[in-house]
From TrEMBL:
It comes from Rhodobacter maris. One of its GO terms (molecular function) is DNA binding. This is Peptidase S24-like protein. It holds the Pfam family Peptidase_S24. The keyword DNA-binding applies. The keyword Protease does not apply. Keywords: DNA-binding, Transcription, Transcription regulation. Residues 1-76 form the Peptidase S24/S26A/S26B/S26C domain. InterPro entries: LexA-like, LexA/Signal_pep-like_sf, Peptidase_S24_S26A/B/C. It comes from the Bacteria.
Amino acid sequence: MTPGLHDGDLALIDQRRNTVRSGQVYALTDIDGSTRVKRVDVLPTGLILRSDAPSYPTEFRPCDDANRVNIIGQVVWSGHTW
């Protein structure tokens, strides 16, 4: 799959959309304090964090850790300058 965002792209984040729906792309602050953009899937046992780029591994956050993932908001637009 071609990555949805490329290095240097701009992303518009709607902070009102911070309730996770599976398959959507969100900006988040992870448990290590890093801010990232990931496609998020919700499971009864936790969260799956996916990148569209195959070079980044899929990550699982069990419920205990998932509660420490801060959803900033949903990515609603992205683009780049030339």
